[in-house]
Amino acid sequence: MELFMVLCTIFLVYFSLLLWNLYEQWRNQSCYILDYFCFKPSDDRKLDTELCGNIVKRNKNLGLSEYKFLLKIIVGSGIGEQTYGPRNIISGKEREDSGPSIMAGISEMDEFFDATFRQLFAKSGISPADIDILVVNVSMLSPAPSLSARIVNRYKMREDIKVFNLSGMGCSASLISVDIVQNIFKSHPKMLAIVVTSESIGPNWYSGNDKSMILANCLFRSGGCLVLLTNNPSLKDRAKFRLKCLNRTHFGSSDDAYGCAIQMEDNLGYLGFHLGKGLPKVATKAFFQNLRELAPRVLPLKELLLYVAQHLTRKKDKEVQGGRTTHVNFKSGVDHFCIHPGGTAVIDGVGRSLRLSEYDLEPARMTLHRFGNTSASSNWYVLGYMEAKRRLRKGHRVLMISFGAGFKCNSCLWEVVRDLEDENVWEDCIHEYPPETLVNPYMEKYGFINEEGYSMVE
């Protein structure tokens, strides 16, 4: 009887979602991505191994223990020497007496705005006056007037544009922005929206010696992305992706989850971003909760029924076979996995949880190596890698997964609307990836510090 009720519930949920999707299409409430434009800073902002080493040496607050720890993190980060940093850090102005200037962050954003908005308007043929919705997310920089107001002023957008400015939302903010857009689309037909996603590194460089706060300096790099979206059915033939579903999970009510990734001052008064030891456990819990809610909307009916059967027999299997766990095969409903490249541990952890192959993880690994963790814009560089490699074909489904402070796990499923072969931010280097051997330049330079008498890879 229990099995019958569970099966009936599954059928009901499955067909209800199917009918709902058809209803939304009928009402022209679909959310399409017309295009997206990832930012590639100029070459004079690249952080090669020697420059990174010099930046580390400039921090006079580091003792031998912190210095060893920092170089060890850099060596194992999975980041190459083609990533980009802000100009104030490269020029050695991260420790001015008055602290990093807010203008360093605004200048960093202006470079990003100039390059990507120019691309968007030139390639799409859309003018600033055509934009109905603007959502900006930059977690660590919140000037007044807001960055969204700066964009409206810079490009002379309409007086009735719907504007949103998000801060403090972390690496999963771009999917939150997409969620805002799709909800507006439901009650406003034939709209055009731009999501602006980036992070401000310049004013937020940590100059102290707390190991939990040094990590952010090692992983985060400069970048950003603009995403052009519409619900206008007359433009769907120009679209690249259609949003199938989006799911958000927030564990902020838990003190441990709230405090595991947080901006704070250390004991010496230096401002930085703390990444706690409990972060992996919290991220795993949020990840599985998110996927549990997402599964009925992503997986085919056959896989859902198999999951139910495994779940009902799990207790018996534990007693008889010594503990077999229930597993959902997301690859049965997903063709590509767009994983946030927050670090090698994040990529490896998601890969193990979903039982993904190295082919599935390749876009995230290569993005981490080439561009680093660019916060909320990272997923779009991963998506760009897939497109540059000609992996994305009409009808394919792409699962985008992101994590953020709070603590949050957000995910969404995109359907590829047409075969994608457009040039993008990877154009000049995609032929180099994946290399036969992924060289770690930091290992070669900092793997052994002979003059100090210790190994950085122990």
Helix-strand blueprint:
Blueprint (H helix, E strand, L loop, with lengths): L1 H25 L5 E7 L10 H10 L5 H12 L11 H4 L11 H23 L8 E6 L8 H9 L6 E5 L6 H13 L6 E7 L12 H9 L4 E7 L10 E10 L4 H5 L1 E5 L5 E5 L3 H20 L2 H21 L14 E4 L4 H11 L3 H14 L6 H11 L8 E8 L3 E9 L24 H6 L1 E2 L4 E2 L3
Largest sheet: 9 strands, mixed
CATH superfamily: Thiolase/Chalcone synthase
**Broad shape:** globular
Lateral arrangement of strands in the main beta sheet: 3-2-4-5-1-6-11-10-9
- Tally of separate domains: 1
- Number of beta strands: 13
- The name of the CATH topology is Peroxisomal Thiolase, Chain A, domain 1
Overall mean pLDDT: 86
How far the N terminus sits from the C terminus, by CA atoms, comes to: 57 Å
* The level-1 CATH class: Alpha Beta
Assigned CATH architecture: 3-Layer(aba) Sandwich
Structural class: alpha+beta
Helical content stands at: 40-55%
Low-confidence stretches: 318-326, 448-458
Description:
The protein has helices at 2-26, 49-58, 64-75, 87-90, 102-124, 147-155, 173-185, 211-219, 255-259, 279-298, 301-321, 344-354, 358-371, 378-388, 441-446; strands at residues 32-38, 133-138, 162-166, 192-198, 224-230, 241-250, 261-265, 271-275, 336-339, 397-404, 408-416, 448-449, 454-455. Helices cover 42% and strands 17% of the residues. Strand 2, helix 6 (147-155) and strand 3 form a beta-alpha-beta unit. With 458 residues, the protein is α+β, with helices and mostly antiparallel strands. It has one domain: Peroxisomal Thiolase, Chain A, domain 1 (3-Layer(aba) Sandwich), CATH 3.40.47.10. The model is unreliable at 318-326 and 448-458 (pLDDT under 50). Helix 1 packs antiparallel against helix 11 and helix 12 (344-354) packs antiparallel against helix 13. A nine-stranded mixed β-sheet has the order 3-2-4-5-1-6-11-10-9, with helices on both faces.
